[in-house]
Amino acid sequence: MHDSHSENKFASPINKKLVLVGNPNVGKSVVFSNLTGQYATVSNYPGTTVEVFSGTANIKGERITVIDTPGVNSLIPQSEDEKVTRDILLEENMLIVQVADAKNLKRTILLTLQLIELDKPVVLVLNMMDELKQRRIEIDTLKLFKLLGIPVVEAIAIEGKGIPEIKEKIDFNQPSQLKVNYGEKIEEALAGFEQKLDISRGICLMFLAFDKGIEEYITAKCGENILVEAKKIREEVQALFSRDLGNVINEIRNKKAKEIADQAIKFRPKTIRFAQVLGDFMLKPVFGSIFLLLVIFLMYKFVGEFAAQTGVAFFEEKIFGKFINPFIITVVKLIFPAKIFQEIFIGEYGIVTMALTYAFAIVLPIISAFFLFFSLLEDSGYLPRLAILLNRSFRIIGLSGKAVIPMVLGLGCDTMATITTRTLETRKERIISTLLLALAIPCSAQLGVILGMISGLSSAALFIWIGVVSLVMLVVGFLAAKIIQGNPADFILEIPPLRIPKISNILIKTIARLEWYIKEAVPLFILGTLILFVLNKLQVLMLIEKITNPLVVGFLGLPPKATEAFLIGFLRRDYGAAGLFALSKKGMLTPNQIIVSLVTITLFVPCIAQFMVMIKERGVKTAIAITAFVFPFAFFVGGVLNFVLNYFRIKL
């Protein structure tokens, strides 16, 4: 954010701030973009790895700083993300805009009550009103305004509806007067705290709920002696209850939230729709598993067969083979008479003949299909149902169903998915999910290439690849859950309605992801090719192949040329997979070798971008430890698979 945070994260800012707060996945970022005109500054919150977006908006003639905070379910933090949001809200001179999913009013109001108790002006934005109407539900916003004492705005942020009303309702001088009655014993303590500590009712409640972060805040604001006195009062109040004070406070607040929500919601006549019935069935273990297999089968057909065979053949043989490469070869030979310069562009390790051909002729058709398919699943509302379906299985490996989201996102990009692990609530879950992302989750481009290679083999090959990778994930996750201390967190996840995705949204997401691929991946493809070119000219590549010969040829049973795929796989996983794809198309890999090589490169070390993010998110020691484990383990599993296939004389 700004330099003011670097000295004291609880310091009062000079300028007015508008802080966007809300549960996860309610559209805060869309509201932020609409308010700030897409401009954003990204920086880590002091002392954390959590990124915070900030920008400026012109509201009622004033330039106001707008901050988009990480999603929270409560102001008593359970994760680093939630702690950052809570700490930002402890600052002064701000207005809170709570962005909410209109479909989940009780959960929304539970957070609203906590925000109001901070004694700051709050505006409640009921987003996704279009989806609320699809459920045939109405909210009486006027009644909600009277019950909460804060402005309430209806919005469909993705269409820009409600944004002018948000700006109109902003008033930095009107906090709500609503007070939840927590009972005589707690109210007496609150009155004493507010007078002695000169802090808001909400902060006093957090302190009563034994929030250690608030103890730090009180010490910074009031001094160590005052904190000691406050702790004594808290212990006296806790002694009056048989249950934890935090639970008592939360139950009373929950009851109040339900009471307000019940008064504000108006139901229309309920109709059972096909989408609702199908969505419910997806959560059933048997039907949900069958549906998941159907999704995998369709993805295999679309990505593995159509894109990887028909699409790649068209681009590689016709577009590049007949037009682009012959034209470039002619041009390069005219411009560069010297053979060494020609080889840089059109040789065996040429920028055009290898890097760009791999990037655009092999990988691009495959990931285009995958991104389309993934966006379809994303917009349909299926992914949260998948998380709930797999929750029980994930418990075996020390994770809650919430960890399914980073794992599924890893199929798009493991680097981005590693960043999303910060939303998991415990250190144990964050480490295990980072390990499994580095080990067993292939990114979109790699997965597409893998499916393309397997599609030319028997169905047994597909089941062996899925079986080995899944078994590795299960065993490693299970052992990691036993070794790493801690318990998985509770699993709470909103289930959105099933919906027919908008083609325009799918295309926009796919194009954005392809743009990212071209900017992120293609330069690394070129860099990797240049490295191979230099290593080959210096005859270092031959030396590496000779040194690794016992491992790659002897243990894995692969040709020496496969070493190149593993070398460039560290730069980009998909580049390594594309190298194996090229070898298989040239007939240099047998079906058995294809499966062994694919299992090995799937489990192979994370690409350099993911490794850097692992350092940022988990620290240098953890990142190095994970990589040091993954590298030899991938070759061990590949070698064991090669041995088993040969020992039992299995021919794929």
UniProtKB/TrEMBL annotation:
Gene Ontology CC terms, in alphabetical order: plasma membrane
Compartments where located: Cell inner membrane; Cell membrane
Amino-acid positions noted as binding Mg(2+) in the UniProt annotation, renumbered to this chain: T36, G37
PROSITE patterns membership: G_FEOB (PS51711)
Its membrane topology: Multi-pass membrane protein
Transmembrane annotation, as ranges: 281-303, 323-341, 353-376, 396-419, 431-454, 460-481, 516-535, 594-615, 622-645
UniProt main location, coarse: membrane
Entry keyword Signal: no
Domain spans labelled FeoB-type G: 15-176
Residues given in the record as GTP binding sites: 22-29, 47-51, 68-71, 127-130
Pfam families on file: FeoB_C, FeoB_Cyto, FeoB_N, Gate
Classification via Gene3D superfamilies: 1.10.287.1770, P-loop containing nucleotide triphosphate hydrolases
UniProt keyword terms in alphabetical order: Cell membrane, GTP-binding, Ion transport, Iron, Iron transport, Magnesium, Membrane, Metal-binding, Nucleotide-binding, Transmembrane, Transmembrane helix, Transport
Coiled-coil annotated spans: none
Record GO terms (molecular function): ferrous iron transmembrane transporter activity; GTP binding; metal ion binding
PANTHER family assigned: FE(2+) TRANSPORTER FEOB, FERROUS IRON TRANSPORT PROTEIN B
Family per record: Belongs to the TRAFAC class TrmE-Era-EngA-EngB-Septin-like GTPase superfamily. FeoB GTPase (TC 9.A.8) family.
Function: Probable transporter of a GTP-driven Fe(2+) uptake system.
Name of the protein in its database record: Ferrous iron transport protein B
Organism whose genome encodes this protein: Candidatus Saganbacteria bacterium
